[in-house]
Design goal:
- The structure is a homodimer of 181-residue chains.
- By secondary structure, chain A is mainly beta.
- Chain A contains 2 helices and 9 strands.
- The interface between A and B is medium-sized, with 28 and 28 residues.
């Protein structure tokens, strides 16, 4: 559970980031900003703020916001109900984001796993996205990502999203709608 | 065929609109701005400017730009290769856009069909989108849309896009990659 004051602070800072980037939300969307700490209670280092624009059976679009150096932990999207796993395109809108996928480990990467829990990060091929740049992940590809020093705003275009089915490398994580304490 | 000077002018004005709205494109994307006049040679009234961010077998995302009162003519997306027709969500980013779909005709609508070719517009239920507002179209739903007095920038989140299969009410229209003269 995220303490209410942590949630409110993260929500307000996300709204400021979106506003500064010219991203307009409706009043209802502003209320519905999601703050995910992945149950690790360490939001400044491991977490993600987002708004889901649309999520139908076929298509999902989200806007993600990350604070400086904040990490979305390693996970993959398995097949669900006879559908192939989720396919995702990440497009950097603002700031900088480092995505890590299987492949040759990048020497001297820009980001690094959060120090506590390093063993739960296993893929180290780095893709750097600056504003306007994007990367498409095939279903079931392990990945994690981290914002650069200013933070990042990232558009996600994907197939249907069912966060509760995501498989995280860190067994302590359970991704589900967060309950605010 | 769109005359080269018309294309270049439309492309540059689209790039300015995107830039003013904080939408960043890569140099290659800037080169690839698509200008569609639907073969009607009346771009100021009937047309659309766009960039396709991604178009995989499952997911497509585009950014559309319309000049003041510019109209995307009435069409629908049929099933293609045993897949249901394209599902589209339009999200207004900037300006204002009026979408017309089947249903009760809206009295005193904000937009109106281009005067030449009015008979090719048959659905008149109006959905007004201001920045942050969005609307999802089911497959095979007839629709057309028109920008408000300032023009509009509209994000489109959809299933796979195959423009050449779109069915337009106006039989003069053939939607295909435009050749620049």
């Amino acid at each position: 559970m995220i303490p209410k004051e942590v949630y409110e602070q993260a929500k307000n800072s996300t709204l400021s980031m979106f506003q500064d980037a010219g991203i307009v939300l409706t009043p209802l969307e502003k209320e519905n900003i999601e703050v995910a700490d992945f149950g690790l209670n360490d939001l400044a280092r491991i977490g993600l703020q987002l708004i889901v624009y649309v999520n139908t059976d076929r298509v999902c679009a989200k806007e993600l916001a990350l604070t400086p150096h904040q990490t979305c932990p390693e996970h993959k999207h398995p097949p669900v109900k006879h559908q192939p796993g989720k396919e995702e395109t990440f497009r950097c809108r603002w700031g900088e984001v480092y995505i890590y996928v299987p492949g040759e480990s990048t020497p001297n990467p820009q980001g690094k796993p959060p120090s506590e829990g390093e063993s739960y990060y296993t893929v180290f091929h780095e893709v750097i996205l600056k504003p306007g740049e994007q990367y498409t992940l095939s279903p079931e590809t392990l990945h994690w990502f981290q914002a650069g020093p200013k933070g990042a705003i990232v558009s996600e275009f994907s197939t249907n999203s069912t966060d509760e089915n995501d498989i995280f490398t860190d067994p302590r994580i359970l991704r589900k709608p967060e309950i605010i304490n």
